[in-house]
Amino acid sequence: MGVACALLWLLVHVLRWYGQPLPYVNGHLTDFIAVPLMAQICQVVVQRWIAKDSSYQLPLVYILFIAVYVSVVFEWIMPRYSPRYVGDWLDVAAYFSGGLCYYLTQLKKVVPASR
């Protein structure tokens, strides 16, 4: 999921740079994939250099922390200091939805299939 999120994020930003933004994708979809992308980067760092365990999964509370942090910074603090940012509750919902999807995707990798 992390690679797919990174590629989609890159595609959106390349299209923006060329002046061809995708209306809905440009807005809420990038917010939806932001938390999973950050969580995946954190998970890889922890797996490789901190826990040194490739089976380590981020706990839900860590993913929720990322969503809260991103929401506060980009939807509350930044709009107060820059006209480029606009606080939007749909973006907050997208951050948390993306985080929940990431968590559920990771959970399926850990739980063995029942026979």
Automatic annotation (TrEMBL):
Highest taxon of source: Bacteria
Keywords: Membrane, Transmembrane, Transmembrane helix
Transmembrane segments: 58-77
Full protein name: Magnesium citrate secondary transporter
